[in-house]
Amino acid sequence: MTVRIQSDPFDFGAEANGFALNNNDAGAIVTFTGIVRNLPSGDLAEMQIEHYPGMTERALHQIEDEARQRWSLKDCLIIHRHGSLKPGDMIMMVATASPHRADAFEAAEFLMDYLKSRAPFWKKEITAAGEDWVASKDSDEAALARWSTKS
Asked: What gap in Å lies between CA 114 and CA 37, rounded to an integer?
């Protein structure tokens, strides 16, 4: 079980291959990578992502532990970047390994929903017109809410 918060880019292929090799006895591996999306106007110059070291790692380890309690997971990987990112940059990765695909998919979705809505990262969009902090969307909150009814 690995949680990494880093400013440096990561190599998705190398991460996914390494995770698969370390879990070659799992029946299912699910990976997801989030990418910095440009604004509909195409004006995003960069996204600044801030966090509090220590606090953020603890929060991600706690949610990873909750995923292991809810689903039968052999392993899980969470990578999240901070600092200045450009449109198209990889911002995060989640990988889950389980004996069965349903657990791998559900655990990965749970982790992704948490990272999108509740993980202690603060995102600021920077354009030529100025800077704006990114607020949580209703759709993100709805996605996260579905997990509160599952045991």
From this structure: 18
